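I hope you will forgive my troubling you with a question about protein structure. I should value your view on which stretches of the chain appear to form regular backbone elements. Here, with my thanks, is the record as I have it:
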Amino acid sequence: MFEITENAAEQVRNAAEQGGTEGMALRMAARMKEDGGIDYLMGFDEAKDDDLRVVSNGIEVVMEPQYATLLDEAVMDYAQLDDGELRFIFINPHDANYVPAPKSRSK
């Protein structure tokens, strides 16, 4: 299911604190673009009865069932990009632009 790294979880907690939304779940949504990439939407929200729920690194994540397929196996991280900007990134095998990490070799 959907996973949040510790770095991303820390940033989500900071955003909730700054925005006064502590105690609310992180709502995730995703939609497939024409090129096979995925757009991600997120924000703080109250959970609804029919939501799917997961807790990852202490963050409660909710999503409508229709988004589960695109978000399954996805990982949300918070990382520094090549231009030095820090932001949330998504690693998702359902994205047409996904490139798996190289496997490490054992000695």
Q: What stands out?
A: The first helix runs from residue 6 to 19. Residues 3-91 form a domain with the Hypothetical Protein Aq_1857; Chain: A; fold (CATH 2.60.300.12). Helices lie at 6-19, 68-71.
